[in-house]
Amino acid sequence: MDQILRNILKAEAATIDAAMEADLVAVQSPLLHEVLCHALFQGGKRIRPLLVRYSASLIGEPPAHVNTLASVFEYLHAASLLHDDVIDHADLRRGKETANRLWGNEAVILAGDYLLARAMELVAAFGGAECQRLVSEAIRRMVEGEFLQMRVAETRNASEASYFAILQGKTAALIGAACEVGIVFAGGTRQQRRALRTYGTNLGLAFQIIDDLLDYHGDPNETGKAVGNDFQEGKMTLPLLMALANAGGADRARLEALLAATPETRRAAFAEARRLLDASGAFANARAKAETLITEAIASLAIFPDTAARQVLTGLAGYVLTRTK
Known about the structure:
Elements: H1 3-24, H2 30-40, H3 47-56, H4 66-88, E1 92-93, E2 96-97, H5 99-103, H6 105-126, H7 128-155, H8 160-185, H9 190-217, H10 220-223, H11 229-232, H12 238-246, H13 249-260, H14 263-268, H15 270-280, H16 282-300, H17 308-322
Antiparallel strand pairs: 1-2
Helix pairs in contact: 1-4, 2-6, 3-4, 3-8, 4-6, 4-8, 6-7, 7-8, 8-9, 9-16, 12-15, 12-16, 16-17
């Protein structure tokens, strides 16, 4: 991400933070307020609320209260992370102690519930019935994506089709909804809504694929986590699925044996597994898939005037491919 775009997004993100801070003043419980601030203000680029704002700006000056509506998507994202950390028994997020480690599961689950409830209050108050429907649908799809992931993990029947089905729910649904809500709020047409839905969905899918690649090749100093975590846990990410589909017989058998082994064995064999994936073309193929998705995302914006908002959204799409954390 070039410095000009970074500065623009940082300034806009500050306005989103201000909207959230003003909204949280009404929280009566000091403990709840503390947990919420920890969840919301411990880093993060505010990509989802910024997508609402810039999508709404594609066809003119964004309507009043756009930042309040945009904050809905940061609330939903933060709620999902709070609940994920409880489910995963996580101790760290972005290099800092998780809320569940600091305050326990009960407080954190309730804080996540508060964010979900407040998000729906805000979208009903400022976005109207159609925006409320889109947000509700995104939440439903996120939950269904989690349950599909659980089923796939239990049956160990992962495939590229199931991978993308899970991703459509867990990651892409909320990002796609953020873009579509923005253009709906601004009074966009059906064609414009379809374009923004494509843009956001593809952005979310590509973002996760790059995340998968960073688990094999990322710099821990930038990503904030050690490489190989996904492989150690036996997660069937896209590079691994592509390797199992395309690797030669002996290499495939070795990968399957490692997946059937213990996490400790996988951790010790991570360098070997990375070589096997590379030899199969999995890294290059996964990268090519992400690039295709981003190309389609950028192309979907062609129906809009070449404004500053469109340039920012194009820049964000490019950032997904070049990010290192």
